[in-house]
């Protein structure tokens, strides 16, 4: 099956056209600066050169028209007719409490997505726009929604409830939801496959470390806890987000600095985390460079980043009651030798014994612990688009059987 995977943001759309049989993306690209006169479409067909088109793209409907047009283009395209797009898989950030798995998009699903806008006011509206736009151009093509939250939807209540009045949970659905679910699910399953053990028997901790970062505790194939919460602000230190902090600081800082709600929100989401602590950058490569040069702020920021991950790993080993595999993924998880080394340092007593050379030289999918290490540490590149395509294929095939 050939699935168009769409990830729609407020001013951008990322896409991949995936052949689910081979798992290969036949073409991938993105439209940026939607709504502006100088929008840019970058398109890369498999084994051909990348092309760039600049023009006016006023909204998501026009953006998707361009994406379909470039997929059909005689020179740069990969299909001859729209009907070769068998299905569309949409990444949707927030499924709230309503979706514990991926779904076929129906009118009822669209209604629930709209109801969940309050939970993800920045992310769900463009996701909804993307679905509507794709439907406008491909009215006969099945559309599926794959949620960042659904892998975590069955966490136990004692893990997802905050220490707040219970009525707030009932009234406003305030609870931990967790994000990056497709990535945590993909890399934990791959870890089981690479270890040659049944997924349903393993205790796995997955660290998704990109610009946003989260960590999940997965027991027998189910997420039982994760570091992001009601929003993606909680948990680990991130490029620009603060992660965990004392909630009293919010009103304290607002008072001291005379900040509005909006300004405080911006401070926590855009000016904190690694950029705030280091004063250098939100980009880990730049921070690592300054760290190597001995820049004191970079050293402290990187240590704080790794320390926070280590604390969570310890906590999750306790909640899981042991550990079989610790997985690193995302731009930092896959590439930062220092982060993996720091997190795993002095953890032999917990069964983690990193092999420094394997860690240093790891590429692709790799086990980087010594043979004698009771728990294995793995580097596994994530592939959220493939998960979306495969889920979409499965749902569409199930529908075919039903109808
Ligand atoms: P996103 O969350 O936007 O998908 P990525 O998963 O691509 O982001 O991760 C981006 C982060 O990965 C950036 O902080 C970047 O600096 C970091 N990164 C990429 N390559 C390396 C590297 N070789 N060493 C350290 N960090 C890296």
Structural summary, described in words:
This protein is of the alpha/beta class and 403 residues long. It folds into two domains: 151 residues, Nucleotidyltransferase, domain 5 (2-Layer Sandwich); 184 residues, ATPase, nucleotide binding domain (Nucleotidyltransferase, domain 5, 2-Layer Sandwich). It contains 15 helices and 14 strands. The strands form two sheets. It has an eight-stranded mixed β-sheet, sandwiched between helices. Strands 11-10-9-12-14-13 form a six-stranded mixed β-sheet, sandwiched between helices. A hairpin with a 6-residue loop joins strand 3 and strand 4. Helix 11 crosses helix 13. The longest helix has 25 residues. The protein starts with a strand and ends with a helix. The model has no long low-confidence stretch (mean pLDDT 96). Bound molecules: adenosine-5'-diphosphate. Adenosine-5'-diphosphate (ADP) binds next to helix 10 and helix 12.
Sum up the structure in keywords.
six-stranded mixed sheet; Nucleotidyltransferase, domain 5; single chain; globular; alpha/beta; binds adenosine-5'-diphosphate; 403 residues
